[in-house]
Design brief:
The chain is an alpha/beta fold. It has a single domain, classed as 3-Layer(aba) Sandwich (Rossmann fold). Helix content is 49%, strand content 15%. It contains nine helices and nine strands. The chain has helices at 18-29, 45-51, 65-79, 97-130, 151-171, 207-217, 225-237, 249-268, 270-273, and strands at residues 9-12, 33-38, 55-59, 84-87, 93-94, 133-138, 176-183, 195-196, 244-247. It has a seven-stranded parallel β-sheet with strand order 3-2-1-4-6-7-9, with helices on both faces. Helix 1 (18-29) links the parallel strand 1 (9-12) and strand 2. The structure holds nicotinamide-adenine-dinucleotide. Nicotinamide-adenine-dinucleotide is lined by residues 13-14, 16-20, 39, 60-63, 88-91, 111, 115, 138, 140, 183, 185-186, 188-190, 193, 221. This is NADP-dependent 3-hydroxy acid dehydrogenase YdfG.
Length: 279
């Protein structure tokens, strides 16, 4: 990175709770400067106070393009550049796809996929002009595998995964890195903040079971966001960072299990799959 040896300037979305808040604290502890953003920036007053001039705050709703542009401009006005963008803001709409319906499905995509894409689009020209920078996409294990009842969230995160993988390939030659973070279950406000949909009895044994399991997980998620953020900082500091960083035993085990099943199916049906060549 061309700013080696200097502090980094971060722009982070969704900083009022969870990973976003912990990222601000970790960046501060690393001696960096941060534009911390939230839909209600007054929730960030303690971070600004703690930062003593190294944390600035701005209103940023990822579903509002004008607020995204204003926050990017504010970051440049205050700190002069952006070294690390973290697309962290997120929400969970729970329910079987029929229960979710089109309106809530679009709302989920507006936050998880189009929100992250909106902020990325506003920041990429800045990073390209600088000739360096890193984009951190907070995805999920649920961006790599799926669960009944998580169809809206999973599919929006899968879209984010595809978008981010292409972005990484397009930006690497320009000196810009992309890190996709894949957390398992972490003890943040994420579960508490979820939007639940009216239940249909037809989905009791599929999405309904996931609803119960998710409710039971509240405040007993197995992973610590402070440790998650420490791992992200370590990966960012590495000379050879991964494209994807899984976080948590549940994430590693879940993805392994999913890929083993995927490969087993490819093998089982391989002969038929290979039977389509013209000659
Ligand atoms: P959280 O609910 O504590 O934090 C999410 C933040 O995003 C909140 O502060 C919320 O206000 C904000 N937000 C929601 N909609 C927004 C919008 N339109 N504009 C701006 N901000 C908005 O949960 P978290 O776990 O810290 O979530 C952070 C990221 O981690 C999310 O992208 C989430 O999908 C991802 N993630 C979390 C978990 C987990 O188990 N906690 C697992 C996998 C992935």
């Amino acid at each position: 990175m061309s700013n080696e040896g200097q502090d980094r300037v971060w722009l982070i979305t969704g900083c009022s709770t969870g990973f976003g808040r912990e990222l601000v604290l970790a960046a501060l502890a690393a001696g960096d400067r941060v534009m911390a953003t939230a839909r209600r920036p007054e929730t960030l007053a303690d971070l600004a106070e703690l930062g003593k001039g190294r944390v600035s705050t701005a209103a940023l709703d990822v579903t509002d393009p004008a607020s995204v542009e204003a926050a990017v401009q504010a970051t440049l006005a205050v700190f002069g550049r952006i070294d690390v963008l973290v697309n962290n803001a997120g929400s969970l709409v729970m329910g079987a796809l029929e229960e979710v319906g089109m309106k809530r499905l679009r709302e989920q995509y507006d936050v998880v996929f189009f929100g992250a894409a909106e902020v990325t689009s506003a920041v990429v020209p800045v990073l390209r002009e600088q000739g360096h920078g890193t984009i951190v996409q907070m995805s999920s294990l649920g961006g790599l595998k799926t669960y009944p009842g998580y169809g809206a969230y999973n599919s929006a995160k899968w879209a984010l995964e595809g978008y981010s993988e292409v972005l990484a390939a397009e930006l690497a030659p320009l000196g810009i890195r992309v890190l996709i973070v894949e957390p398992g279950a972490f003890r943040t406000e994420f579960n508490r903040n979820k939007v639940t949909t009216p239940e249909l009895s037809a989905y009791k044994e599929s999405a309904g079971l996931t609803r119960q399991a998710t409710a039971a997980l509240l405040d007993s998620e197995e992973n610590d966001p402070v440790k998650g953020v420490a791992a992200i900082m370590k990966a960012l500091d590495s000379d050879n960072p991964p494209l994807r960083l899984l976080l948590g035993n549940d994430a590693v085990d879940g993805l392994r299990e999913h890929h083993d099943a995927l490969l087993a199916e490819v093998t089982e049906w391989e002969e038929l799959s290979r039977s389509t060549a013209i000659s």
